[in-house]
Design a protein that fits this description.
By secondary structure, this protein is mostly beta strands. The chain has a domain of 54 residues. The chain contains no helices and seven strands. Strand 4 and strand 5 form a beta hairpin. It is globular, with a radius of gyration of 18 Å.
Length: 82
């Protein structure tokens, strides 16, 4: 089976012909933080687009959240926003 992607590149989806486990034209992994938004009791991910901070919004009430990346940093990837 052959599929046209959004970028109009031909991708071969036939599993017998393409036996490699790697995806063709796989997207880059985006850096993110997992955030529990207390305001609406929901979880969402916010993304690092600039390299200096993570930003996103609560998916329900759309409150904006910006998390600056500090010099020392932390190893945690999941946080609570209240």
């Amino acid at each position: 089976m052959t599929v046209w992607t959004d970028s109009f590149e031909l991708v071969n989806m036939d599993m017998e012909e393409n036996k490699s486990t790697e995806r063709v034209n796989s997207p880059k992994k985006r850096k993110f933080l997992g955030i529990y938004f207390v305001c609406c009791n929901v979880y969402a991910q916010i993304y690092n687009n600039s390299g200096k901070y993570y930003e996103g919004r609560c998916p329900c009430c759309l409150r904006r959240l910006t998390v600056r990346i500090g010099k020392n940093g932390v190893k945690n990837r999941f946080f609570t926003a209240s």
